[in-house]
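A brief tutorial aside. Many learners find it easier to grasp structure tokens once they have seen a single protein encoded end to end. The record that follows does exactly this for Lipoyl synthase. Read the sequence first, then the structure, and try to relate runs of similar tokens to stretches of the chain.
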Amino acid sequence: MRRALWFLAFWCAGVAAVGLVALAIRSVLT
């Protein structure tokens, strides 16, 4: 069960990181 929580936490962190990178790229391009 704890492993699932770790996986969910890392997945959320990855999604947040991708979103921040996409936002940064979009702000630089525009």
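Self-check: The chain has a mean pLDDT of 95. If you spotted this yourself, you are ready for the next section.
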